[in-house]
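User: Teach me something about this protein's shape.
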Amino acid sequence: MENASVTAQHLDVPVPQNIKVTIADQIYIDRSQLPSAMIAQLVRLAAFQNPEFYRAQAMRLPTFGKPRIVSCAELHPQHIALPRGCFDEAVGLLSEQGASVDLDDLRENGTALPETVRFFGELRQQQSRCGSVENLRPATAPPQQKMMHPSSAASSHADRHLL
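Assistant: First, the predicted structure itself:
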């Protein structure tokens, strides 16, 4: 979540020397010793303005139930969970405040797809401008995903969208 409007202000509160950051399905930052002002700045990194709210507001439609700001941060008892796309900004913010990051990377590489898996779909014009089919083939995929040829009699409608 890139949010250019967030500018870090140097906090006048003590920040721990080392902060544990774990990368897994999200970025987990230990918040047990963080001041509330630092927690708020980290949460703002994963927030953005909701275009649906402003679209409805501009057309004078009801905005009830549409949040003005969408936050992708999660507050857990011991951690702040941020999307992995916020990693550079989060580490930068912590470093600007004088803290060093104790990084723990728990991501897994996954399993490579067998060479027998091929792409049989047709790219739309926008997709074909992005690159060749070889560039679109993922290096790894979760084991539960299956890719099959659309002419396969056993393929269901749910499986066809994976092509």
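Now, about its shape. The longest helix spans residues 36-45. Residues 1-6, 139-163 have pLDDT under 50 and may be disordered. If you'd like, I can walk through any region in more detail.
User: That's plenty for now, thanks!
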